[in-house]
Amino acid sequence: MYVLEESNISFEDFEKLNIINKLRQIIGSWWNIQLNFTDEKGILKGVPQGKFFNAKNPVCKLITESDKTFPDCVDIATKTTIESEEAEAYLLSTCHAGFSTMSLPLKLGKKYLGCIFADGFLIEETVDEQKDRLRTYLRKSFAQNATHLEEYIANLPVLSLKEVGYLKELLEVVLDEILNLRKTISDNTESFHALSNNLKNQWTYENIVGKSLAMQSVFKLLNKISDSEATILITGENGTGKEGIAKSIHVNSKRSNANFIVQNCGAINDNLLETELFGHVKGAFTNAIKDKKGLFELADKGTLFLDEIGDTSPSMQVKLLRVLQEGSFISVGGSEQKKVDVRILAATNRNLEQMVKEGSFREDLYYRLNVINVKLPSLRERKDDIPILIARFLSDYAKQNNIKMKKISSSCIYKMEKYEWPGNVRELQNEVERLCVLSGDEQDIQDDLLSDRIYGIQGKEEIFKTINTNGSLKDAVENLEKTMILSYLENENWNKSRAAKKLGISRASLIMKCEKYNFKRVNKEN
Ligand SMILES: Nc1ncnc2c1ncn2[C@@H]1O[C@H](COP(=O)(O)OP(=O)(O)OP(=O)(O)O)[C@@H](O)[C@H]1O
May I ask which residue range the UniProt record assigns to the signal sequence (predicted)? Predict the structure, then answer.
């Protein structure tokens, strides 16, 4: 049974949400109002303890940055939190200094998680009275700065009742976003529990797990063809599980009692591959001191899995075609035709159809191999599978190391779901193993152990955070364009074709824009 961290709301996570940052900016730039969060005990979140409150206007800055008056603000945060819980709905109140505050309780079902509050503003209807209170408070606390204080007070944001309504609506949006995020995390937690219990049941096909629709349809296809003897071509990016699927096909076939043999055709040169596959006779070459059986013979009555088939040379393609057509071959240096009964499964991460069109892969061999095609989706296309895969790898690690299965925090899972996984399942597997190792004797795995590239992932949202929304629209758009282009180029290792595709523009247009902004890859050839 897997247990997840009882996921309290993670303030760090929602602080990073683009929409919350944007709303914070908007509320700040429209009315000079600061937005803060407290937990259920009234502890201010998102700012270092004992520090200022993201103060926006000069009076709030003065009050929160002074050791003398700062404790009053801390008390207000606590008081607001308590009142907000009691009020159950939005609450308009005033702080010790005389500013208005607006708070909304953060509630999940009956559980009170804390509150959001906006403060540092005055309301039109009570502005004179509030300014008087402010004056008195400030004079008492900062007598020496009296001249500046009047100027500060005169420029404070004053909201009409209509604007107070708008502010309330904006805070409600923030609240919704936080609760949505919390719900996503909690749904993940629940599904993680459910997944764990089902790991042995419907979501596995031998050693391969997957509950996403994409993987379920792969499993369906595999079930249909389990009795067939057909040659199968398995396609998919690196690390998507092609070899695992090949093994599963073998295990579920009538050949399961015979050998399952794997040969990576891309890893060795032609001569070596030929002797590996077909064997050699004594004296065929200098070191051939005795006859050696090839993999085709060893796989007789069983299955031979030819990985990276797209990397084979034209002459090797001819030889493979012959075995596939005639079921026979000649060992290197030999003359005798050898007959074998081998089922071929082949895999590639390359686009064989395209290679056929370009003439680099034989069409006849392609059709021989591609009797049935099992196409494995990338992990990016089946993010639903991430939690179940994590569960599988945690369990594998526990079994291998004879330890109790570790618990993984929900924010860790959340971040792993957000990440794009260019290395697919293999990369995810490595990351989980890394987490298990780094957590040492600790039973719990927290997200700060994640690799930087995954820990820091905020997806495209992060891009928008850097845009200055106070300047002109033209500047902001240009800024956004620059940031996105750079970010996509970096992500695609400066491959302009891939970056252009992701950006949805032509390669030529990307090149022109790179020239316009003088973007060049530093220290590497472009
Ligand atoms: N759906 C899955 N369930 C469980 N483990 C998986 C799954 N997919 C991949 N893996 C694991 O991920 C790793 C990589 O898988 P595999 O070697 O089968 O990928 P591949 O597509 O053949 O990679 P390559 O193209 O680089 O040869 C393996 O350790 C495998 O066990």
Answer: none
The CB of 212 under 6 Å from ligand 1? The reply is no
Nearest C-alpha to atom 5 of ligand 1 is from which residue?
A: 208
242 touches ligand 1 (CB under 6 Å) = yes
> Ligand 1 center to residue 426 CA distance, Å?
6
- C-alpha 218/C-alpha 198 separation (Å) is 18
For the chain, the average pLDDT equals: 83
392 lines ligand 1 (CB under 6 A): yes
Name residues whose C-beta falls within 8 Å of residue 112's C-beta, 6 or more positions apart in sequence: 40, 85, 105, 106
How far apart are the CA of 238 and the centre of ligand 1, in A?
8
| Side chain identity at residue 141, one-letter code | S
pLDDT digits (tens, 9 = 90+) for 384-427: 899 989 999 999 999 999 999 998 887 788 889 888 899 999 99
Indicate whether this complex's ipTM tops 0.95.
Answer: yes
Reported in sequence order, the residue ranges of 13-144 that DSSP labels E, i.e. its strands, are 34-39, 44-45, 91-94, 100-108, 111-123
Which residue, among 245, 248, 210, has the nearest Cα to 392 in the 3D structure? 210
Q: How far does the centroid of ligand 1 lie from the alpha carbon of residue 513, in Å?
A: 39
Is 206's C-beta closer than 6 angstroms to any atom of ligand 1? no
8-state DSSP, 526? -
| Tens of pLDDT, residues 180-238 | 777 666 666 655 655 555 544 555 677 889 889 999 999 999 988 878 889 999 999 99
Structural domains present in the chain: 11-185 (no CATH), 213-375 (3.40.50.300), 379-455 (1.10.8.60), 466-516 (1.10.10.60)
